[in-house]
Structure formats: C-alpha cells, structure tokens
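Structure ticket #2291
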Amino acid sequence: MGPVEALVQPLGAAWAGAMLVSGLAFRRRAWLAGVTSLCLAGGLWLVGGTPFSALLLARLERPYDRIHPVTLPVADAVVVLAGDIEFSSRELLWFGTGSSFERSLTGLEVMRQGKARTLVVSGAPFNWLGSARSESDLLTAWIRSWRLPAGDLQRLPACKDTHEEAVAIGDMVRKRGWKRVILVSSASHLARGAAACRKEGVDVLPVGCDFQALDALDRPEHWWVVPRSEGLIRFERWLHEELGGVWYWWRGWI
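Resolution: structure written out below.
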C-alpha cells in the first residue's frame, strides 16, 4: 500500500486532517489549537506509522509463540474459544469468517494430530427468525458436513464473553471427569482466557494462533510516513485485552 492509498483510509485521512489543521492554526498563531492538532497527528502516527502498536501486542503473544501441537501431551479435549465466525444469513455456510478463524483451524489441526478425542467449540449468541441460537451450532454443522477431524464433537451453550465460556468449560470438565484440556485461542487473548478457565478449576494447556503482532514484526516494513489502519487495529486489540484483564481481575474472574 502506497502513501496515497493510505491517505484514503480513515486513520490516514484523520492524520492528514490533523496535520492540515495544525498548519493552519500555527499560520494564524493559534498556538494552543496548533499544538493540540499536532499532538493528535503525532499520536495517530505513533499508533499507525510505527511498530509501536505491534510491540505492545507482541508482549501478549510472545509467551505462546511456536508452541507446536507435536510437543503437547495428550489431553481429554481440545477447547476452541469463540470469536472467529459471525452469523450471516447470506453466506452458503451461514457464517462469515473473521481475522481469528485460525482458532477453529488450529483446533482441528490439534485434533488431527491425535492430541485429544473430543473437540469442544464455542460461539456467541445470535437471533434467527425470532429464536436464540449459538454460533457454535454453525461451526458444528460445518465441521460435520465437511467430515473434519473432530472426534467426539461437543459445543458449549451460547456465551457472551470469555467469563461465560470459562464457567461453561468448567461445568463440562467436572461433569465429564476430565483432568486437562488444550485451550485454543488468539495468542493475544490466551493469557486472559487461560486465567479465566483456571479460576474455574480447569487445568489448561494453552495453544496460540492468530499472531497478528509477531507476524507484523517479522515483515521488513515497520515505518510509514502516512499511518495505516492495521496499527490502529492492533492497538485496539492490545487495549481491549489490557482493560479486559483489569476488569476480570476486579470482578474476581481471574
């Protein structure tokens, strides 16, 4: 992506607008407005034009880097946290995939390598024709119709957040007498997800995927004149996990 293309993105356009306002303000000697606009432009550039946001997010991902399923011991089940699909009545599969679809793919790969006999999928609630459903129903139907390596395929009830998932996982573990499960999620989310499950008494082996920050740092391009929206997305994900961790700690969920 070139600088002209970056300028038509929301972040690039906002940065250019802040720079323009700053220049006009300084020209008219409106120092406070000029400094404020310049600081805003600098903040946008820091987030989207430098490796800053990737470095922040990489701190959450790095503990789970290069954990290969081959090195894992056998567990009772593989549990995949929700967040990688979204219901869509227009798609042939009834769902669209997001940037975290690696969660489902990684869970299936761990199953294919024989690390557990049961695959557990989760999903957020959605409404269809007046009835409440779970996205886990859609994943289950897809896995079965494609005959993917899922073993004893199970699904959690509809869960609105990671805490509800952890409670549901804990209930399933106790009812089935499981000792240990492999927990699959985006690497940046695993610390909070694993902590929430352990709070419910579940022994988890975390397996990460969706390494957005570490993959970005592996690429040669880290600096841009015009900030890009990818940096803002990584910063939002980092902030979501950090604030989420504080909230979960305050509520006693981790």
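Closing remark: The chain has a mean pLDDT of 92.
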